[in-house]
Amino acid sequence: MTPILDGILTTLVYLAASFILFIVGKFVYQLFHPKIKVSHELVEKDNFAFSVAYVGYFIGLLLAIGSAVIGESDGLWNDLMDIGVYGALSILLLNLSIIVNDKIILRHFNVKKEIIDDGNVGTGVVEGAISVATGLIILGAIHGDGHGVGGPIITATLYWLLGQFLMFITAVVYNAITPYDIHEHIEKGNIAVGIGFAGAIIAIANLIRFALMHDFESWIITLEDVGIDVGIGLALLPLVRLMTDKILLPGQKLTDEIINQEHPNNGAAFVEAFAYIGGSILISWSL
């Protein structure tokens, strides 16, 4: 077999394995949410809030599966075993994170009621962002798992737990730097508040991913790397928000655009979210 043909066949095998993991991820989502009829929400109710959260889940799933696929090859069969093991772990952790963060980050209201019963798009945006953020964290956790205490699977799981904790800290810090209660306004259906919050969550998760991508050396080194990267990100959140006010939205107040008018300005919130995510990308390039 020629090297080119061998490479094509190997690629097709990896794609097939990834596609199988997507199907498994879809069924596992339904197992974790047995009362949600996906086709009913998407097709019959045209529930846009659920669509946003559901697509966010699949973006997170894509990132999580990517953690099992990318990296140096160790032979086709060994790679397939790694894809199966780490892919299953990724799907489990991603679904657990949705449940955990519905009870922690979005604990001030009933997430299922807001998305399924009320069609609250702001809540759907945040839940989708939590899935994307968790996918980024899993990507970093598994790609750089190394051989910490208990082996690579335990190390990757502990990385994931660390990431979940830091996402909660991000939520607390973001709520503190905004002159309004984000949970109150998200529950009221303010999509713009949800978009801005989503940008902050994804931005910090990207920095966590960047810090975890390196192979495990020791917990001290890992915690130092994560602490520095996330610390810089959290410290810059208020600065980025100020810059959005003064540079990206000249002549306008971000808070006024988001909560102090009859129809919240979703476009302004997208600018805010971009500023957070763009800032996190620049930080990762600079460190």
What this model shows, in words?
It is built from 12 helices and no strands. Helices cover 79% and strands 0% of the residues. It is globular, with a radius of gyration of 20 Å. Helix 4 packs antiparallel against helix 6 (121-143). The N and C termini lie far apart (44 Å). The protein is mostly helical and 287 residues long.
Short description:
With 287 residues, this protein is mostly helical.
Topology:
Elements: H1 3-32, H2 38-44, H3 48-69, H4 76-103, H5 111-117, H6 121-143, H7 152-177, H8 182-187, H9 191-212, H10 219-248, H11 254-259, H12 266-286
Helix pairs in contact: 1-3, 1-4, 3-4, 3-6, 4-6, 4-7, 6-7, 6-9, 7-9, 7-10, 9-10, 9-12, 10-12
List keywords for this structure.
287 residues, mainly alpha, 0% strand
Approximate shape: globular
Strand content: under 5%
- Share of residues in helices: over 70%
| CA-based gyration radius | 20 Å
Sheet/helix structural class:
mainly alpha
Extract low-pLDDT stretches: none
Quaternary structure of the protein = single chain
